[in-house]
């Protein structure tokens, strides 16, 4: 069986699926960022359309609901002139007892060109990529606790736009590292792009075992962790975690790990604050920080379209050569 | 804070948002009707597309379900070549605890060009218009009991198409005036366009306090109220009102305020009958009237597309100059 | 009142609605298959778009949920460049008490060009076709137990692609004939296209009364029924039937009527196996057969798009001449 990180490429080494940051080279990540740069100004044009994917059919296969992520993929595909079909899987044939693979085989037979997959099970996008016809691209839009690579790439794009160079940065990631597919993908991307210092900050109950082996420094104290940081990335707190043994009360969490103006003073004066959204105001971040001068949270959303356009057009081009 | 009726205009006085009939001039309403006239014949063409909004992204932001209204906005936008994205807000990020303003800010960051907003709270569309970026237009597709201005404009278009001149008309509006955003917007439009006699007809429990100050004559007796009317507008009876103290039984309501062939004889022989739909046959209107010669109910639906195309293209053009 | 089979034609004899195979001539069915042939290669092209229905509005009016069928109609319409609007009828105005006819009249007033109708009641598509404006086409996408004519046509297309000639074939249809709208339409199409031997195979409880009058031979024993068959069509077993008196247990059904490699040996060596999907593995068909060399199940899905493109473009052209 092909290793996971080889699965993403054509025999000629072109990126055909985008499933995980793992196994992607620095030069490939840079190529994605450069391609996204060419789309980033598109949204300001009078007419926001590129004909690159005209006549292509893209299926948003969302087994897990996410209006925001689906909307950005929908807009990215539409602005590339593709035809987009949103499939709400809870109402689909799988509820008639069809297997996932049968669903995929059937959509494949309808000559679709790309699946954008979101699933609550880690590895779902890889599984689909492993089984689709060679001319089809698969984009992972989030799988379980595993990866959310397009989110990580739009974060990298945002950092590069402001800070230009990755090689001198200290980046702090704060929050539920244990359950966060976003954090996993961010750490891989930051390491690959040459960020020398990555801090992860969380209570012990929200840290994966042996997290240091990912190439990060671990902090339980927030102010120490974000000290002199150039970039502070806040993670969304899944409120459903509060019921378990993972967390104290919401207000206690906010006291220790919520990003306030006061705590932010530990970071560099020109530090930027990021968050994948949707934000919980007063839980992981103070409104004054989320809406403040350091925040680039809405820029992340904007750049998300350009980055997804880049990944979609690159993978489709690679698939088309097979 | 900008007054509500100023909010709709660019500094140069162009219509940028369409939120309410209030504060709009007779010449502006006439300009909308004239622009709609140029679209009204489109639907009969072989190819029903105008390239006016090509490359524009329109979000149907429906916090309140309405297939009919959403469908007409969807078709209007599609026929102007815009890209349309329907957002079912009950399944969106707001259910993850995000505030309305955060939802708007995020969609804005995706570089959308227009929000078509339907909401059960009066003032929701104004609130959004007050907070969006200057290049974005907001159309009110119905907010609480407050306004439904595109419905009122398609009603005016329908009246003008049949009766040509507003200055000699007697228009009767029958039904639940108290809770009707449609009636509110209609009364404002009829007054602005110079209709000399507007009658409102309802039981006392379904009339707003001091309704006379709106520039209407009030009747509790239907036959007196529609006497010699040129136009009879029936309102939809929200059946959920029946449970409160507002109304007697459904059949008693029909007996007093349902439009039958017999009652219609009080109006002028060439009177037209209108209804915003969906109709409750045998509750507020007899089937023989709804389907009869005087009814222009389905024409209202047709013209609704042309009127919405006019408003969408006018506001987008104004927003584009900012 | 026009007879059902005359309803489908314009006065000039052109196919305007596609409601049932009944009443359609061999030459018309052949014309559909030939037209579909011209679309069948489209999906392999770089750009999969035909401008034939540009500017046309098609409403997928699905009163009964079916992601798969709706998706193929959606893709077919999109590849013909039409604008498609999917209406989930459970959330629409009908839930506000509007009648089906009022819903249709309203959509008609919005100048739509085609309704693709799926409904749990037999005759629903005919009813709509009988009442729409002359320029509108209606396609039956499945009505109750009555007909599923586009499915039957894609089955015919699949058979012709592999077997070329209908005039020498033995076709066996296995399963719940009693409740299957697919089987009804298939039998009519096979008879019309001149298939000399049609076998239906089912337990007595799943056979309609006087099924022989449809022009088929009846078998209760599967191996006898599929003997020397060129084509074996398996029907989907509606699991909800299992609760009634119609069927023994699932495993007993599989033992008698499930298509296994072993049973398939009774058919000709080059027999093809078909299924309308979604399949119940291990209930009506073994996985080894569904995924085996004889199976053309996924080809049916592919051809379904081409056949629907053919029917949509033919009916729309006929409606346009009225």
- Helix-strand string of chain A: HEHEHEHEHEHEEHEHHEHH
Largest interface: A-B, 28 and 24 residues
Total count of domains of chain A: 2
Major sheet size, sense and barrel closure of chain A: 5 strands, parallel
Derived from helix and strand composition plus strand pairing, the structural class of chain A reads alpha/beta
- What is the CATH C-level name of the largest domain in chain A? Alpha Beta
Q: For this structure, what is the CATH homologous superfamily of the largest domain in chain A?
A: Aspartate/ornithine carbamoyltransferase
The share of residues in extended strands of chain A comes to 5-15%
Description of the molecule:
The structure is a homotrimer of 322-residue chains. Chain A is built from 11 helices and 9 strands. The first copy, chain A, has a 5-stranded parallel sheet with strand order 7-6-5-8-9. A 4-stranded parallel sheet of chain A has the order 2-1-3-4, with helices on both faces. The first copy, chain A, is 36% helix and 14% strand. The two termini of chain A are 20 Å apart. The first copy, chain A, is globular and about 55 Å long. Chain A is of the alpha/beta class and 322 residues long. Chain A has 2 domains: 26-148 and 302-320, Rossmann fold; 149-301, Rossmann fold.
């Amino acid at each position: 069986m092909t290793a996971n990180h080889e699965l993403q490429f054509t025999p000629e080494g072109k990126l055909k699926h985008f499933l995980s940051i793992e196994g992607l080279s620095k030069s490939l990540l840079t190529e994605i960022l450069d391609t996204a740069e060419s789309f980033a100004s598109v949204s300001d044009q009078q007419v926001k359309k590129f004909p690159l994917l005209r006549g292509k059919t893209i299926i948003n296969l969302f087994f897990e609901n996410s209006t925001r992520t689906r909307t950005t993929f929908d807009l990215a595909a539409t602005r590339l002139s593709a035809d987009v079909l949103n499939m709400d899987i809870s109402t689909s044939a799988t509820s008639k007892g069809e297997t996932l693979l049968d669903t995929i085989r059937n959509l494949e037979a309808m000559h679709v060109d790309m699946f954008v997959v979101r699933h609550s099970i880690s590895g779902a996008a890889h599984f689909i990529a492993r089984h689709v016809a060679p001319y089809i691209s698969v984009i992972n839009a989030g799988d379980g606790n595993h990866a959310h690579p397009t989110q990580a790439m739009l974060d990298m794009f945002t950092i590069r736009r402001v800070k230009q160079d990755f090689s001198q940065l200290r980046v702090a990631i704060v929050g539920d590292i244990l359950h966060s597919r976003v954090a996993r993908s961010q750490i891989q991307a930051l390491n690959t792009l040459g960020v020398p210092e990555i801090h992860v900050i969380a209570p012990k109950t929200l840290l994966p075992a042996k997290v240091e082996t990912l190439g990060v420094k671990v902090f339980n104290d927030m102010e120490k962790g974000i000290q002199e940081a150039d970039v502070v990335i806040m993670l969304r707190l899944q409120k459903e975690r509060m019921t378990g043994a993972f967390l104290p009360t919401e207000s206690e969490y906010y006291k220790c790990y919520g990003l306030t103006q006061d705590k932010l003073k530990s970071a560099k004066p020109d530090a930027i604050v990021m968050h994948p959204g949707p934000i919980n105001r007063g839980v992981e971040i103070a409104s004054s920080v989320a809406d403040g001068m350091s925040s680039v949270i809405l820029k992340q959303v904007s750049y998300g379209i350009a980055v997804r356009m880049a990944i979609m057009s690159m993978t489709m081009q690679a698939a088309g050569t097979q």
